[in-house]
């Protein structure tokens, strides 16, 4: 039954069947009460003591649990079984209809799941941003003060809601909106203590005292991927183990453990009512050291649980099932370095205890070198906060300073991440980020895409199982048909999609990518499940992303009606063309020959037909690909751009530099309507109103872009303040598309790189002598201006301090604009 469907009070669960996952946090008394509520309202409890009882997912619609750490979690998602916390039952009963399941997900990546917030004295735009962010990250928002509220977001204690809390002695926390802003920027829930009213630490001015670390349970038992023989858990007092019940465990030979240790581990598994097996087809758990070899490939293709020795020990010590994907060093390590990390030298600062040990081992697992001290030859410094001598030295030496999310997410995605990404350089002033170390999870999609060949990732997928296409003979031999036992760094990876993902196992929002090119690899069921989950999330995601991207995050004011990138959902489609015009367009289309070869790489920006409709977008993207039109999300790959008008989005502005053909989004609708690849000439974008508004002629702009060859800004040194309007990453993307890049400027005196030296035949541009600082006109940034001017003059360069509009206007016109109208008054500095 669809969520939100009304039923009689006594039968709201009549079309639902349930399983109850018992755990330390969902005890027998709670489980009994849940079962009573379900049966009272017409539901059926099929399994009431999982995982002690076996589970048949085909017979279920819902699983009630307080944790996602149970063996069938991912399979349940793939089969559209809703996994919800007990509060979902309570909410459904209270409203006499099935509550929305996503808000009650136990997924730890939905880090606001236990937060119910209301706003007190904030502007409407900030309320919308906070509501959207909380909902997108698994929490709830209430416009009114109810007993379920956990946090009141306010700027002062002087408001009616806070007065009610004080007068009624309610257990609610009053926090500044800055807390949500920092949580959303990091993608992690940090301690709200420094943001708590009436006396929040973050408003007490700059302090030389470093923020103290807090206890961190996320890395306990997961600081190393392969413990030494001597660290095996003791059998003493472990006679009652249950964690391996119904598990058939294969210990791979690549563990290289002694026979005596192997015997000890075998004994623990058997004592826990599990079995020890010798072949992958007999196993539902594989323990191995590396993402390598026949057993690893076969087990991963069969989608059984694959973990390492540290994970096995964790299960034994805690007697509690946990997913091997949950902690990065509980999953087997690659045998070869992460591409790009081979020559990196990384040092750590301000992390201590198990968090530091974990990060040291994680750095080594990427193939980089972890140095105890910081020297000029270091490439990166990973720090928990910025108040240390190491950080000051790193900035003086132009060493990249990032938080631990950079190394965690590079490893989880098995791809070096951009060190300038805002979440990696964000350091809340009163927070030691050691408190959120170890929360990043292995990305399951990455495992399929980068450590299995396409044919392997199809083995035992729901699609191949339905069609009976599994090569059982190959699996019985311990490896899929045509399996390549080499790690994926030496094998051609499966097609990758950098699109939006739901927040489990890095299903955290990646909604910066507007359009997805569907992958041809992997389980169709998985993709359908992801699309369905994303569809449930899209209203929250859309609001969160729209507000997150605006200037100032969720702290500095709302969206204005006049904002240029404001979506007008009320715009009507243009009238249908006359029959004669339609016939003429049909006459120009190219008929398909049955080939699916790509004839156009299309970047789409601002197309309203796909807003909040991910299933429609996915279906139509596939149809377009079949017509020879591949949807891309990187401007550099686009031969054509489709937009409803001239936009000032990061995608559109960066794409101009590559001089693509710019089409109206009507072209997409026309191709889908005709079910054919149409010639694009009749659909070129015409937007006289915005051409007049911005003072450009689009055709001439593209001619200039073609002549510039993405080198308009080449040779120009451009710096940028920390919190510049528009966002550093957006401006960086635009600058890079035009031949330059941005450098963070924090007031450190350094030598500006020398001007480029061309060949005798290459003329020098006068702009090579100029250096720019893109800045806000506020007190914080003004303090940097005199230092920047001195730095420029010491390097014999001409300094310009300008607003971000100088770069945006130059990119849109494909012509470097005189700084006059964009220049900030240096006298204020």
UniProtKB/TrEMBL annotation:
Endpoints of the signal sequence: none
Region feature (Disordered): 458-504, 565-598
Under Pfam families, the record lists: BRCT (PF00533), PTCB-BRCT (PF12738), RTT107_BRCT_5 (PF16770)
Q: Where is the composition biased (Basic and acidic residues)?
A: 565-576
The superkingdom listed in its UniProt entry is Eukaryota
The record places domain BRCT at 8-106, 106-197, 341-424, 592-685, 708-824
Q: Which PANTHER family match?
A: REGULATOR OF TY1 TRANSPOSITION PROTEIN 107
Q: What is this protein identified as?
A: Regulator of Ty1 Transposition
């Amino acid at each position: 039954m669809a969520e939100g469907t009304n039923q009689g009070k006594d039968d709201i669960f009549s079309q639902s069947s349930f399983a109850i996952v018992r755990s330390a946090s969902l005890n027998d008394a709670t489980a009994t009460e849940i079962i009573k509520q379900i049966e009272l309202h017409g539901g059926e409890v099929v399994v009431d003591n999982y995982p002690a009882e076996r589970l048949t997912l085909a017979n279920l619609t819902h699983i009630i649990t307080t944790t996602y750490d149970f063996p069938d979690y991912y399979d349940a998602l793939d089969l559209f079984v809703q996994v919800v916390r007990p509060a979902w039952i309570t909410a459904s009963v209270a409203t006499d209809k099935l509550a929305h399941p996503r808000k009650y997900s136990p997924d730890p990546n939905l880090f606001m799941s236990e937060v119910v917030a209301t706003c007190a004295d904030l502007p409407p735009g900030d309320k919308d941003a906070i509501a959207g962010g909380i909902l997108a990250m698994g929490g709830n928002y209430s416009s009114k003060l109810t007993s379920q509220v956990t946090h009141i977001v306010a700027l002062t204690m002087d408001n009616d809601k806070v007065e009610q809390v004080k007068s009624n002695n309610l257990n609610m926390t009053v926090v500044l909106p800055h807390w949500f802003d920092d949580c959303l920027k990091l993608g992690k829930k940090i301690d709200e203590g420094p943001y708590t009213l009436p006396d929040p630490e973050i408003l007490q001015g700059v302090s030389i005292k470093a923020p103290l670390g807090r206890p961190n349970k996320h890395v306990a038992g997961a600081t190393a991927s392969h413990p030494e023989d001597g660290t095996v858990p003791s059998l003493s007092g472990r006679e009652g183990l249950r964690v391996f019940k119904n598990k058939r465990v294969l210990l791979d030979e690549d563990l290289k453990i002694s026979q005596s240790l192997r015997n000890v581990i075998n004994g623990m598994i058997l004592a826990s009512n599990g079995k020890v097996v010798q072949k992958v087809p007999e196993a539902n758990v594989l323990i191995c050291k590396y993402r390598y070899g026949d057993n690893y490939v076969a087990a991963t293709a069969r989608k059984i649980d694959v973990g390492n020795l540290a994970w096995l020990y964790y299960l034994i010590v805690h007697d509690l099932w946990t997913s091997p994907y949950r902690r990065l060093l509980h999953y087997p390590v690659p045998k070869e370095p992460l591409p790009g990390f081979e020559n990196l030298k990384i040092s750590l600062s301000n992390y201590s205890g198990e968090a530091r040990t974990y990060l040291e081992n994680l750095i080594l697992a990427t193939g980089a070198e972890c140095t105890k001290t910081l020297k000029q030859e270091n490439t990166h410094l990973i720090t928990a906060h910025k108040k240390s001598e190491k950080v000051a030295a790193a900035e003086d030496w132009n060493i990249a300073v990032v938080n631990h999310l950079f190394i965690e997410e590079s490893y989880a995605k098995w791809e070096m991440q951009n060190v300038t990404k805002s979440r990696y350089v964000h350091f809340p002033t009163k927070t030691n980020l050691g408190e959120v170390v170890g929360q990043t999870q292995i990305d399951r999609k990455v495992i399929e895409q980068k450590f299995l060949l396409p044919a392997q990732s199809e083995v035992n997928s729901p699609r191949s199982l339905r069609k009976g296409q599994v090569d059982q003979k190959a699996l019985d031999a311990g490896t899929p048909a045509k399996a390549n036992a080499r790690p994926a760094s030496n094998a051609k990876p499966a097609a990758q999609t950098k699109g939006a993902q739901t927040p489990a196992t890095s299903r955290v929002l990646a909604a910066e990518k507007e359009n997805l090119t569907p992958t041809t690899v992997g389980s169709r069921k998985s993709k359908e499940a992801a699309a369905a989950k994303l569809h449930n999330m899209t209203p929250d995601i859309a609001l969160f992303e729209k507000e997150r991207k605006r200037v100032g995050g969720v702290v500095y004011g709302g969206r204005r009606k006049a904002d240029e990138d404001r979506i007008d959902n009320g715009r009507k489609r243009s009238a249908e063309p006359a029959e004669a015009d339609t016939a003429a367009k049909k006459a120009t289309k190219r008929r398909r020959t049955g080939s699916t070869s790509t004839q156009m790489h299309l970047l789409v920006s601002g197309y309203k037909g796909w807003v909040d409709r991910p299933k429609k977008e996915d279906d139509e993207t596939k149809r377009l690909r079949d017509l020879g039109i591949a949807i891309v999300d990187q401007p550099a790959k686009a031969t054509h751009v489709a937009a409803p008008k001239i936009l000032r989005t990061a995608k559109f502005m960066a794409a101009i530099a590559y001089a693509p053909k710019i089409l109206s989004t009507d072209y997409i609708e026309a191709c889908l309507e005709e079910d054919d690849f149409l010639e694009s000439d009749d659909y070129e974008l015409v937007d006289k109103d915005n051409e007049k508004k911005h003072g450009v002629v689009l055709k001439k702009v593209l001619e200039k872009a073609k002549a510039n060859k993405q080198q308009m800004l080449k040779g120009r040194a451009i710096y940028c303040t920390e919190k510049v309007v528009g966002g550093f990453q957006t401006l960086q993307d635009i600058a890079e598309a035009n031949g330059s890049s941005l450098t963070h400027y924090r007031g450190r005196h350094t030598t500006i790189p020398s001007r480029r030296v061309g060949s005798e035949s290459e003329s020098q541009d006068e702009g090579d002598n100029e250096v720019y600082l893109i800045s806000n006109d506020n007190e914080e940034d003004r303090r940097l201006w005199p230092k920047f001017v001195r730095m420029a003059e010491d390097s014999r360069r001409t300094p310009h301090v300008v607003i971000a509009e100088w770069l945006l206007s130059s990119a849109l016109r494909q012509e470097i604009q005189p700084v006059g109208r964009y220049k900030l008054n240096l006298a204020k500095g």
